[in-house]
TrEMBL record:
Species, as recorded: Roseburia yibonii
Keywords from the UniProt entry: GTP-binding, Nucleotide-binding, Repeat, Ribosome biogenesis
Similarity remark: Belongs to the TRAFAC class TrmE-Era-EngA-EngB-Septin-like GTPase superfamily. EngA (Der) GTPase family.
HAMAP family in alphabetical order: GTPase_Der (MF_00195)
Listed name of the protein: GTPase Der
Function: GTPase that plays an essential role in the late steps of ribosome biogenesis.
Record lineage: Bacteria, Bacillati, Bacillota, Clostridia, Lachnospirales
Binding site for GTP 2: 184-191, 231-235, 296-299
Annotated residues for binding of GTP 1: 10-17, 57-61, 120-123
Amino acid sequence: MSKPVVAIVGRPNVGKSTLFNVLAGERISIVKDTPGVTRDRIYADVSWLDKAFTLIDTGGIEPDSDDIILSQMREQAQIAIDTADVIMFITDVRQGLVDADEKVANMLRRSKKPVVLVVNKVDDFKKYMPDVYEFYNLGIGEPIPVSAASMLGIGDMLDEVIAHFPERNAEEEEDDRPKIAVIGKPNVGKSSLINKLTGEKRVIVSDIAGTTRDAIDTAVKYCGREYVFIDTAGLRRKSKIKEELERYSIIRAVTAVERADVVVIVIDATEGVTEQDAKIAGIAHDRGKGIIIAVNKWDAIEKNDKSVKEHSDRIRQVLSFMPYAEILFISAQTGQRLNKLYEMIDVVMANNSMRLATGVLNEIVAEAVAMQQPPSDKGKRLKIFYITQVSVKPPTFVVFVNDKKLMHFSYTRYIENRIRDAFGFRGTALRFIIRERKGES
Ligand SMILES: Nc1nc2c(ncn2[C@@H]2O[C@H](COP(=O)(O)OP(=O)(O)OP(=O)(O)O)[C@@H](O)[C@H]2O)c(=O)[nH]1
Ligand SMILES: Nc1nc2c(ncn2[C@@H]2O[C@H](COP(=O)(O)OP(=O)(O)OP(=O)(O)O)[C@@H](O)[C@H]2O)c(=O)[nH]1
């Protein structure tokens, strides 16, 4: 169910960004389809052969002295050890082996995590191979020569990476308890919320077989049902540097969201919703999870009869790409509305895996089409032949039409809204795949 996480670690200037961009393709470093969310180079979805994984770059900001470089590399390596299934350690054949590489290699070796040792900038295999062998001295396995810039050796490197993925774990897959990730900016109250929700009933289940990440999963019983809260404790780092803290919170969110059914995005009521919240929320949206926005510290602000509406409006505006998300005003400190949160988790999870019968769907679409004529262009009008739901988590529909170009975003949105009017689907994204049916027009 959950995708493996692969983390990139390495000294400045060895070519991490270049490699990252090669692996991520064009899907990275650009403003993606989630409005308002600029994707920076922290994580990307990658697939190789039939394996999909999440790639994260643990690298932080530009260091300017050897001491700082080493301490930052240690920090990166630790994040990788905490979160990744496989670590890619990137070195540079032109610079050769340096002291910092050896120190970090020792750390990685001790962690017992699978490490793939990549030697970059081998633009000419014949010429540089003798230098590549030198990297055996790191004692973390066979060095794999690549050239990120000329895209050489990338396939062999990826073969090696996916060979280390954990076997699909039957126990984990059969586990049908709701899994909930609590994510958000630093200091919004994530830990307080998890602590309050789980209380004394807290049972730590971190040693679930097959979870190689050091996530702390906490199972808690509520009204006879067990819920598992995912926390990535290893990443609760205290840094003074704002960019670094934000980077950790994004990495923490990516790795937790991957395994979750429902994501609780915590926002601080005393600060209001920000672009950083949007960035984090975008991670859950992209992955089609059930979503609840929990406006925390509701106890700490002055309220009047307009407060709920004002906060909701602002959230809807900043997080405009997820109008379907549920919003709840809570206090992790006093416990206000936490019962409601459990109820909402149940509902959102059910909606995220709801299946609609094809007959009913087509009736709704036929009615929708009758009520609002489909768009046309140059005398040709859009025809919707058939709609069917192909998967859940999130609910995904394939719509067969006469001409894809005629199915504008706004008309898809209209169809989506009619389906939502009939079935709700609160708290979950819906996906639409538009297919042309040839031979009919
Ligand atoms: N010759 C050669 N140069 C490369 C290769 N890959 C990257 N470079 C160059 O190495 C330099 C550093 O590359 P980056 O990808 O920015 O390195 P980085 O590790 O992300 O650096 P930081 O962002 O400082 O951590 C750039 O000038 C790249 O063009 C390669 O395969 N061969
Ligand atoms: N008034 C009030 N304060 C809260 C509430 N929830 C958390 N806090 C306070 O907010 C601060 C941050 O809470 P944490 O739970 O550590 O926040 P976090 O999101 O886990 O922080 P990081 O681990 O640093 O990302 C603490 O001082 C909490 O006491 C709340 O509901 N009301």
